[in-house]
Design brief:
Low-confidence stretches: none
Number of strands: 6
Distance between the termini: 53 Å
Strand content: 5-15%
Radius of gyration: 19 Å
Largest sheet: 6 strands, parallel
Mean pLDDT: 88
Structural class: alpha/beta
Helix content: 40-55%
Strand order of the largest sheet: 2-1-3-4-5-6
Order of helices and strands: EHEHEHEHEHEHHHHHH
Number of helices: 11
Shape: elongated
Length: 220
Amino acid sequence: MTEKIRIHLADDHQVLIDGMRTLLNTVDDFEFVGFSLNGSTLFEEIIANKTDVLVLDISMPQKDGIEVLKEFKEKGFPCKVIILSSYDELKLIKEVMKLGASGYLTKQCAAEHIIEAIHFVNKGEEYFCNIVREKIFNTATRDNIKVNKYNPTVSELLTEREIEVITLIALEYSGKEISEFLFISNNTVETHRKNIMKKLKAKNTISLVKYAIKNKLIKA
């Protein structure tokens, strides 16, 4: 029998918690173990109910999401954390990721992405909903990229993340810079690069740049 993923919700709106709880309870490998309306005792509650994944709002009374993350970072993270927020400012997104959050969803896209997000972060991966991902990517590349993820030639061969990585490689971003912009590890960047080269049968970085220009991922 597969071990269930234990989930705790922290948000100051009971209606949102009730709706999210109903949704999560439809997933066989999820177990809803608790909720909090403020962050004051969240660390102790997470420890007590052996939470695997915490879905955390930024705006809460007594102790907000930023303060909770700072406490977790200081004491040692007791679980994976997904931020669920009404805000999508890039500065805030970067701040919570630096503090150790594993994912970021806006409340606008929560219902569509929360199940997938929980599965991803529980496996040790990062997760961003499309709204957040596009904001990070477009800002990071300073609008110098002409990304067309719906180009059949490209999208049928490469995943969305691979398209992001090859575009940044073609713009001469280093592996470290790519990892920071996309909030993934250097090892993950290298894995994506190897997969891209294998799929394109490319021999070197120059081949990747030529492919990106030919398929209008960047301006020539």
